[in-house]
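Why does residue order matter? Because the sequence determines the fold. Keep that principle in mind as you read this record.
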Amino acid sequence: MSWTNGYPAILLRIFPFPIAIVFHFFIFSIIPFTYALLVKAFKKKNFLLAIILFQLILWLLNVYSMAYFYRLSKIIMIFVLISLLSYLFNKNISDNEASVQ
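Structure:
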């Protein structure tokens, strides 16, 4: 059984729903952090690392979408939540950088 076929069903059957949601949050938070590393790699002109991180992001999105394609509404809500948190985190960083200059 592969990650994409077994992960959601196994997680939701073994763990109570609140624990599963917290675990999902940590697993799905890998994508925004990888994206932040990708942006930093571009800013530092480290294009080899940027290519590797971009491929990793594509692979992660593919894995997560294949794992949850039958629960599309839930996965969209998770991605929106993570995108919002990533936006707020990056906005806070850019506001701090603007106030320093």
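Residues 34 and 76 are 19 Å apart (CA to CA).
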